[in-house]
């Protein structure tokens, strides 16, 4: 789930089989909040991003703990 600086939901994205996802968001400070995944322990930490107007797409890595040691 991606929210703006006021906490309003902008969009949601679902990963593909390869774990990749895409989303288009307006310029500004946004928060990417990973959701719980069945079978994994806990959830990944939220990631704050500052999207500049006219910026090129970028990669953001979000790591989930599988619980496997």
Shape: globular
User: Quick check: average pLDDT?
Assistant: 87
* Number of domain units: 1
Helix- and strand-based class?
Answer: mainly beta
Query: Helix count, per DSSP?
Result: 0
| Number of β-strand runs | 4
- Give the termini distance in whole angstroms: 28 Å
Task: Write the H/E string, N to C.
Answer: EEEE
* Helix percentage range: under 10%
Low-confidence stretches: none
Classify the beta-strand content into a percent band. Answer: 15-25%
CA radius of gyration: 13 Å
Q: How many strands, which pairing sense, and closed or not: the largest β-sheet?
A: 4 strands, antiparallel
Could you give the order of strands across the largest sheet? 2-1-3-4
Layout of helices and strands, plus pairs?
Layout: E1 2-4, E2 9-11, E3 28-32, E4 47-51
Antiparallel strand pairs: 1-2, 1-3, 3-4
Gist?
This protein is mainly beta and 69 residues long. It has strands at residues 2-4, 9-11, 28-32, 47-51. It is built from no helices and 4 strands.
Task: Walk me through what this model shows.
0% of the residues lie in helices and 23% in strands. With 69 residues, the protein is an all-beta fold. It has one domain (1-54). A four-stranded antiparallel β-sheet has the order 2-1-3-4, with no helix packed on it. A hairpin with a 4-residue loop joins strand 1 (2-4) and strand 2 (9-11). The relative contact order is 0.24.
